[in-house]
Amino acid sequence: MLKTFPIGGIHPPENKITSSKGIKRMPVPKVVYVPISQHIGVPSEIIVDKKEKVEIGQVIAKSSGFVSSNIHSPVAGVVTKLDKIIDSSGYKKQCIVIRTDVKNETNFEEIDFPLKTKIELEPKEIIQRISDFGIVGLGGATFPSHVKLNVREDKKIDCLIINGVECEPYLTADHRLMIEKAEEIAVGIEILLVALNINKAIIGIENNKKDAIDIFKKVTQNNTKIQIAALKVKYPQGGEKQLVRAILNREVPKNGLPLDVGVIVHNVGTIFAIYEAVQYNKPLIERVVTVTGKKMENPDNYWVKIGTPIKDLIEEVGGLPEGTRKLINGGPMMGKAIKNTDVPVTKGTSGILVISEEEASRGKTENCIRCGECVFVCPMGLEAHLLMNLAEKGMFEKASNEDIMTCIECGSCSYVCPSHRPLLDYIRFGKNSVKKLETAKK
Amino acid sequence: MSNQPIVISASPHVHSDRTSKKLMYDVVIALIPAFLVSIYVFGIGALIVTSVAVASCLLFEYLIQKYLLKTEITIGDGSALITGILLAFNLPSGLPIWMIIVGSLVAIGIAKLSFGGLGFNIFNPALVGRVFLLVSFPVQMTMWPTAVENNTTISDAVTGATPLGIIKEGLMFGDTMTVISSKIPSTIDLFLGITGGSIGEMSAIALIIGGLYLIIRKVISWHIPVTLLLTMGVMTGIFWLINPEQNASPLIHILSGGALLGAFFMATDLVTSPMTRKGMVIFAIGVGVITVVIRMFGAYPEGISFAILIMNAFVPLINSSFKPRRFGSKIKSKIV
């Protein structure tokens, strides 16, 4: 029997149209737009000036707090502007604009390092390097990775879980990376085991990626530390809490972290970035992005420099098709809709999804028929219909008592509601209001 | 780029293809087998009662929404159609037409629209209509045209009691089950539906087919029907084992008196049943127990309509008392 999490979950159409397409390299953009806030935490501090020449991989904005991260120049070129531009959040954010120096050969070198399995660094040095090279969680949450690895003395960790679930429909970036870089990822896992001083890691992969499961089984067959867990296909299994529950049968307490049950979770993409940083001193200046959509001409997976405008990606796959209604940064369940194709790819961009009228339009909101479907699918055991009602009526304290803050915003409730009620929209509103109330109390 | 604008909205950006309307029409489809059996058994009478109930439910919903409430007309959503069919299925096939119309008015006007329309009603509208008629016109509501002989005409009141009615009466007059069982249809006939009773309640097989369809299509879950029938089976089974001469067997109880219609189609009504699995089980146990108590100790031979309505009233309480287990609320797991 395949493992999975026990409560809730849905199975939306997978639409993984790019799953068999190898990762190609996106042409180096003429101009990159690098936001200084690409991670959860304090925005980085800009340390370059206008008109300054920068080398590829040079730190251009440095970490400015405990939870923060360095940002490196994705290209060699000249800083043309320090400007505010709209990023995928929809807000204007401070950003470093760099014009690529087309004569500088370092911009066009095909960086494909040979496999290097020997781990030379001490745990502290590994964590320092992960911090120096700007590694953040590439699964979408963009939490600075070194912070996760600095485990407090009183917390005992016994297992590292690698998130290769990629439960979002359409996205195949992690899937391709697992197939093409399995050996490197295995080394990356070893590096983290050294850093954490533990000897057990489990890679969780959903059963719709059998090729990736097979490759990892082969790569790790003589490795007693790394196990593979094949998981039943169910959304949102890529959620940390769901994944830990599915693989280890441990339940992260309410408002707690995987750390509280002895686990640290990292995404496969992050592991690969850690491998390159630790073994080859490569900062996080590019990532894999799936550019996809049912009506796209050539949907595909690409290595993309951070800061590349999304319009470059869309042009590369054949432009926006007729009838495009939505552009999404990420997958269809949790991704953010963007209005403007000037928005740059950041460390958290796992995919660009283009969807048409038929898929994009929301049905007309009708009365709740009290079918309870939103309750049955909630992976956190919440009652979405009730939370929406309470948020709508402004009863935030009650909503808080009904655990509104534990909602992971996976969207399963809105997805299944036969009356097309905007459940998650109201729950988000409720969560924000509860947060405001709590800050006001303090 | 196309001339239509790019839109922005919060996630999720896709939706399943389930709609309320599709759920409603699935219920209608699931009721077809029972309807066909009723026409076979009761003939044109079943057709007339059902058509009148459906037409008047739709008409009352239209008239009340248009002229009294002045709100959007929702007769196309399928819910009034279901109320009409289910009301008819709970009526005898020879009922005077004006009574059917009154029942429809009570179901739609009072039980549904007075509470705020679809989704806001506390009680199952069809059952409210039925119980209103039963209480107001007890004689007409228990004149059951007997099966088959009455195939072509509804005017003459050739009536016979329902199996449960015969049992109740027999036991009251001191007969034993051995004597009584010769007067009621065989288990096979009950299973197929060759018996007296309300239009849609007789054929066990047709109702089970419809119920399974609803479960397979995920319109309803198994929790309510299975728990309800199991509760009835266990409870009547205990009485039957203690004294088989004074109590009908569990099989008779489950196959007759609308138990299956109630279990699959009335108690499972999405709007008026609980919204959590735990709640559904509690609700179904309640319906089962009350049904058996009414059948065995009450004045009426049948009791599931009352039982469902009583438990409908408890649903808000059940919903707020039996919540799903929150993820992470109990820490069972320990670090290995």
Give the secondary structure arrangement, pairings included.
The complex is a heterodimer of chains A (442) and B (336).
Chain A: E1 23-25, E2 31-35, E3 45-46, E4 53-54, E5 59-62, E6 71-72, E7 77-86, E8 92-100, H1 123-132, H2 145-149, E9 159-163, H3 173-180, H4 182-196, E10 201-206, H5 210-219, E11 226-231, H6 240-248, E12 263-267, H7 268-280, E13 286-292, E14 300-305, H8 310-316, E15 324-329, E16 336-338, E17 351-356, H9 357-360, H10 373-377, H11 384-392, H12 396-401, H13 412-416, H14 423-441
Helix pairs in contact in A: 1-4, 3-5, 4-7, 11-14
Chain B: H1 20-42, H2 44-69, H3 79-89, H4 97-112, H5 125-136, H6 138-141, H7 163-172, H8 177-180, H9 187-192, H10 204-216, H11 223-242, H12 250-255, H13 259-266, H14 277-297, H15 304-321
Helix pairs in contact in B: 1-2, 1-3, 1-10, 2-3, 2-4, 3-4, 3-5, 4-5, 5-15, 10-13, 11-13, 11-14, 14-15
End-to-end gap of chain B:
57 Å
**Unreliable stretches of chain A, pLDDT < 50, 5 or more residues?**
none
> Which overall shape of chain A is indicated by the principal axes computed on the Cα atoms?
globular
How many beta-strand runs of chain B? Answer: 0
Residue stretches of chain B low in confidence (pLDDT < 50, at least 5 long) are 148-157
Q: Taking Cα atoms only, what radius of gyration of chain A do you get, to the nearest Å?
A: 22 Å
* Overall average residue pLDDT of chain B: 88
Bin the helical content of chain A. Answer: 25-40%
Order of helices and strands of chain B: HHHHHHHHHHHHHHH
Distance between the termini of chain A: 48 Å
General description of the model:
The complex is a heterodimer of chains A (442) and B (336). By secondary structure, chain A is of the alpha/beta class. Among the domains of chain A are: 123-280, Rossmann fold, CATH 3.40.50.11540; 373-441, no CATH class. In chain A, 28% of the residues lie in helices and 20% in strands. Chain A has helices at 123-132, 145-149, 173-180, 182-196, 210-219, 240-248, 268-280, 310-316, 357-360, 373-377, 384-392, 396-401, 412-416, 423-441; strands spanning 23-25, 31-35, 45-46, 53-54, 59-62, 71-72, 77-86, 92-100, 159-163, 201-206, 226-231, 263-267, 286-292, 300-305, 324-329, 336-338, 351-356. In chain A, the strands form four sheets. Chain A has a six-stranded mixed beta sheet with strand order 1-14-13-17-15-16. A four-stranded antiparallel beta sheet of chain A has the order 2-8-7-4, with no helix packed on it. A four-stranded parallel beta sheet of chain A has the order 11-10-9-12, with helices on both faces. The mean pLDDT of chain A is 93. Chain B folds into two domains: 20-141, no CATH class; 163-319, no CATH class. The interface between A and B is large, with 74 and 46 residues.
